[in-house]
Structures are given as C-alpha cells and as structure tokens.
Design goal:
By secondary structure, the chain is mainly beta. Helix content is 11%, strand content 32%. The longest helix has 11 residues, at 80-90. It is globular. The chain starts with a strand and ends with a strand.
C-alpha cells in the first residue's frame, strides 16, 4: 500500500481526508512519501468509516493541526483537556472549561459511529484519561489529534477498547 503524506504525518492510502482539503507534506514523512506528495480528496476513495459529513468539525481538526509539534498551553503536564478547550473556543464552541479529559465524555452528544471532528475520551490505567479529535477509525484503532501526546500536539492511534466515549460537539 502506498503511503501518502498529509501535513506532517504520512498515512496509508485509506487516510483521513477532510472535505475540500489538499495538503502537501511540509516535513520529512515519518512513514514514507516525500515533501512533494500532494493528496486531494478527489484522488482517492475514502472508507465510509472515516466519515466526513456529520462529524464534529473539520475546522477543529484544522485548528489543532496548526499546533502540531508544539505545546500552546504552556503547561508542563496534564494539558490535553486544556488544549481541547482552547481549540473548541477557537472553533466557536464553549469547551468544558475543565482540565479533566473525562469532562469531555458528557460534552455534546454521545455517538457510536465516530467521524472526523468528533471527540474521543480514552481511559487510562489508574483512572486518568486522554482526549482528542477523531481523525479516523480503522482496524480496531482510532486515530486522534490531541494535546499532550508525547508532550506536544500530535497524532496517535489508540485501541477502540480503550475509548470511554465518543461525543459529537454541538454547534
């Protein structure tokens, strides 16, 4: 399967494509591709599981992407929910106002069919949690863009069995 680079991350040919977006790789691609790889939604078929229409907000994902590789909160630890609150406000929504990842489990409407832009709350051993925006679901894994992923805004995959809640933000 050919790897394609989207923003700073190369994804397989079944990658998430946000409606109307075309991105060229701006950095060396971690999994292949090159700085000249440009991908458009029209150039590929996208699995239905990656949704698009009806998700939380591709705008929120775009806002979050703008912070990839940084820590815009200035906090040293436990800042994924603070990042979400910041992005939600920039997207024109309220956020939860809480620093707790699990506060997002009751934010918006719970859904069982996560789509790009929806929010996933992931449980952690010891009762903690993590929260981020769904970019896609494939092979029992959900891909999230989130704050405090290896101490920066990043993209990671999580087991579907670790997800406590998927929510679709309202507004």
């Amino acid at each position: 399967m050919r790897s394609l680079c989207i923003g700073a991350v190369a994804l397989a040919a079944t990658a998430v494509f946000l409606p109307g977006h075309s991105r060229a790789c701006e950095f060396p691609c971690k999994w292949g591709g090159s700085a000249s790889s440009t991908v458009t939604q029209a150039s590929m078929s996208v699995p239905a599981s990656f949704g698009g229409a009806g998700g939380g907000s591709s705008r929120a994902i775009d806002i979050a992407r703008g912070y990839l590789g940084t820590n815009p909160t200035g906090r040293g630890r436990l800042w994924c929910a603070h990042f979400m609150n910041m992005v939600e406000k920039k997207a024109g929504r309220s956020g939860t106002g809480s620093g707790m990842a699990r506060s997002y489990a009751s934010y918006g409407r719970r859904v069982s069919d996560p789509r790009p832009g929806d929010i996933a709350v992931v449980g952690r051993k010891g009762g903690g949690g993590h929260v981020g925006y769904v970019m896609g679901v494939e092979g029992g894994k959900v891909t999230l863009i989130s704050g405090n992923y290896n101490r920066k805004v990043g993209i990671g995959k999580y087991s579907m069995s670790s997800v406590v809640a998927f929510v679709r933000p309202q507004g």
